[in-house]
Design a protein that fits this description.
The protein has one helix and ten strands; from the N terminus they run ββββββββββα. With 201 residues, it is mainly beta.
């Protein structure tokens, strides 16, 4: 168990470090490397990770509150049952990341690469996914109420049974989606109908 508070790190390679079970508060990591680093159950609060590489890192059961991971790589990382509360993840890449059981409470996940990830049955209310890439993602029965899905790439994504009520859906290509069981509010239903050429008086 360790505790780091108000520390700043730039271009440091933590790949051979054991960072499990520690706590990071108000620390900044700029272009640091965490490839394959064990980070199980690590706690971060108010931390800033800029252009960091978490490829193959194990972050399962980690918890993050008010932290920012901007333009970071999470390629094939393990985020099983991790938790992100009001975090900024803008531009980060989750290529082949394991995200089963993840908890995301609000926060900004704009411009993220979430292709092929499994977020089925997750509660993603009020999360900002502006222009995120969710191509072929499993979003079955996800609660997207009041989320910002503006221009999200949903090609071949599974959204069956999702709850979209109150979500911002500007720029979504409804024609490419199977909306079986999807819950919409009245305004969304009208927009969906018009996307197929219907005229509503």
């Amino acid at each position: 168990m360790f505790l780091h508070v108000d520390k700043n790190y730039t271009n440091i390679d933590f790949s051979n470090s054991d960072l499990r079970y520690g706590e990071l508060r108000n620390c900044t990591f700029d272009e640091c490397i965490f490839r394959g680093t064990p980070l199980e159950e690590v706690l971060t609060s108010g931390c800033l990770f800029i252009n960091c590489d978490f490829t193959n890192a194990t972050l399962n059961s980690s918890q993050h509150r008010g932290s920012a991971f901007t333009n970071c790589k999470f390629h094939e990382s393990n985020l099983f049952v991790s938790k992100f509360v009001n975090c900024k993840m803008t531009g980060s890449d989750f290529f082949k990341a394991r995200m089963d059981g993840i908890t995301i409470e609000e926060g900004d996940w704009s411009y993220t690469n979430l292709r092929h990830v499994n977020l089925g049955k997750q509660d993603l209310r009020k999360v900002r996914f502006f222009e995120a890439d969710m191509y072929e993602a499993n979003l079955e029965k996800v609660d997207f109420r009041e989320a910002d899905l503006t221009r999200v790439q949903l090609g071949k994504a599974n959204i069956r049974g999702a709850d979209l009520r109150g979500a911002i859906l500007d720029g979504i290509d409804f024609k490419s989606l199977d909306i079986t069981g999807v819950r919409m509010d009245l305004i969304q239903a009208v927009a969906f109908t018009r996307s197929f050429g219907a005229k509503i008086d």
